[in-house]
Amino acid sequence: xxxxxxxxxxxxxxxxxxxxxxxxxxxxxxxxxxxxxxxxxxxxxxxxxxxxxxxxxxxxxxxxxxxxxxxxxxxxxxxxxxxxxxxxxxxxxxxxxxxxxxxxxxxxxxxxxxxxxx
Length: 118
What we know:
With 118 residues, the chain is of the alpha/beta class.
């Protein structure tokens, strides 16, 4: 029996930029889907890309690399990435790997586990 490693990505344009809601698993089998979604976005200076990670069940090293790619894409055009509803386990992995500082975390946004991120 194989595990479901599907990833769904919902995009909404916002006054600040773009909002992507990720659901499922972000791993080596589907990280290219997020990369494609990112490169298809019309990014501009000052844009904020908000990544809602509340429905993300799993993220491996390839997924983390893709999140870093998102940050780099936004930095190249003078924008920034913000993460919301991040699971405490993913937040811990991002902290341990030293990439948490690359992403703005909304202080008033609950994580998937109900705790608030600082």
